[in-house]
Amino acid sequence: ELLFRWMELNAFSVVFRTHEGNQPENNAQFYADAESLAQFARMAKLYAAWDFYRRELIDIAANRGLPVVRPMFLVFENDLQVYDIQYEQFMVGEDLLVAPVLDPGVTQLTVYLPAGEWVHLWTGQTYSGGQHVTVAAPMGQPAVFYPTDSEVGAAFAANLRAAGLID
């Protein structure tokens, strides 16, 4: 479970990679069985689906110094509630809000959505911001949201549809 959830989290980083470590036989590996390999393939498709945005964000990072993965307060500096969020959720640029599953056995998460209207990536359901919402977070579907008016979010969802990851 830890390996699978790590893959979900890593799919929203700049570099999606594996690392066997110095004792691969003592650690879970993505190629160890069919289920692990299938999860890795799914998360690789997820990573590839936001390539267009990642490239834009890397350019911004290089030229302006803003990180690709950002704490909530960097994007929503006037929302005092985000200052209490440390590692539980983060922004990828200004358009993707990600809340990874960090604890074993968890299949739903409560996420804080800043002001505005937000779309849950996996269901397409819209939520009003300025509140906490609870959403399903089954394996392979970390809690991800984007603003309703986000072209990035819409393109990301379309790419996931084309890859067969969402309906």
Written overview of the protein:
It is a single chain. A hairpin with a 5-residue loop joins β5 and β6 (126-128). α1 packs parallel to α2 (34-49). The two termini are 25 Å apart. It contains five helices and eight strands. The strands form two sheets. A six-stranded antiparallel β-sheet has the order 1-2-3-8-5-6. The protein has helices at 2-10, 34-49, 51-64, 72-75, 151-162, and strands spanning 69-70, 90-92, 96-99, 108-113, 117-120, 126-128, 131-136, 143-147.
Summary tags:
single chain; 167 residues; six-stranded antiparallel β-sheet; two-stranded antiparallel sheet
Global Rg: 16 Å
Largest sheet: 6 strands, antiparallel
Span of the ends, CA to CA: 25 Å
Please state roughly what percent of the residues sit in beta strands, choosing from under 5%, 5-15%, 15-25%, 25-35%, 35-45% or over 45%.
15-25%
In the sheet with the most strands, the strands line up as 1-2-3-8-5-6
Order of helices and strands: HHHEHEEEEEEEH
- What would the principal axes of the Cα set say about the shape? globular
**Averaged pLDDT:** 93
Task: Specify the helix fraction band.
Answer: 25-40%
| Structure annotation, total helices | 5
Which secondary-structure class do the elements indicate?
alpha+beta
